[in-house]
Design goal:
The complex is a heterodimer. By secondary structure, chain A is an all-beta fold. Chain A contains no helices and eleven strands. Chain A has strands spanning 5-7, 10-13, 19-24, 31-38, 42-50, 53-57, 64-68, 74-78, 87-94, 102-103, 107-111. In chain B, a hairpin with a 2-residue loop joins β6 and β7. Chain B is mainly beta. The chains are: A mainly beta, B mainly beta. The A-B interface holds A 2, 4, 31, 33, 35, 42-45, 48, 50, 55-58, 90, 92, 94, 98-106 and B 32, 34, 41-46, 49, 89, 91, 93, 98-108.
Chain lengths: 112, 115
């Protein structure tokens, strides 16, 4: 157990819909990272927040957005969903050693 | 454009023998390299890292080697144990600025250690 929690574990929705994935980092961790793992792309970095502010951005689609709240939990919003958005979405957190990111168990999103 | 590549999708070894997992990268701006391990239904777990100023780092049974001129790194596990069976991801990052915290992962190698 990494101490990072993600909800929901599974999500099934339809094309065109909007969903919100939630992440609670380990206690004391100020940085939160979001990754997408799809079958053909592997693990792709989406975005990082540090203490409420966006710190780094990867190849995140404009239809996707994220935020980190004052209590440090983070949400990833995915809108106008397409079939290709079906993937595992991981949240990770870190403090101190930035590269030692602790990953949550992931949210499996299926878009039908 | 895959900047970090793990060309072997799978590797099978006998318990007690050495496992060698390989990784190649193309971006010369990468200066920090990491290995993560992933079990089914769990997120990746940090294993070991190496800075570009070193060519070797050891942690117990795990050793990472970096060859900067060849843009190649490898992870050796000695001796291999059945509990090491998992997917291993190589990852890389730049030092600072907008690269801070941004890990670029390889596709992963499935390691199976047979008793």
């Amino acid at each position: 157990d990494s101490g990072v929690t993600q909800t929901p574990k599974h999500l099934i929705t339809a094309t065109g819909q909007r969903v919100t994935l939630r992440c609670s980092p380990r206690s004391g961790d100020l940085s939160v990272y979001w990754y997408q793992q799809s079958l053909d792309q592997g693990l792709q970095f989406l975005i990082q927040y540090y203490n409420g502010e966006e710190r780094a951005k990867g190849n995140i689609l404009e239809r996707f957005s994220a935020q980190q709240f004052p209590d440090l939990h983070s949400e990833l919003n995915l809108s106008s969903l397409e079939l290709g958005d079906s993937a595992l979405y991981f949240c990770a957190s870190s403090t101190g050693q930035w590269y030692e990111q602790f990953f949550g168990p992931g949210t499996r999103l299926t878009v039908l | 454009d895959q900047q970090v590549k793990q060309n072997s999708p799978s590797l099978s070894v006998q318990e007690g023998r050495i496992s060698i997992l390989n990784c190649d990268y193309t971006n010369s701006m990468f200066d920090y390299f990491l290995w993560y391990k992933k079990y089914p239904a769990e997120g990746p777990t940090f294993l070991i890292s190496i800075s570009s100023i070193k060519d070797k780092n050891e942690d117990g049974r795990f050793t990472v080697f970096l060859n900067k001129s060849a843009k190649h790194l490898s992870l050796q596990i000695v001796p291999s144990q059945p509990g090491d069976s998992a997917v291993y991801f190589c990852a890389a990052s730049g030092a600072g600025g907008t690269s801070y915290g941004k890990l670029t992962f390889g596709q992963g190698t499935i390691l199976t250690v047979h008793p």
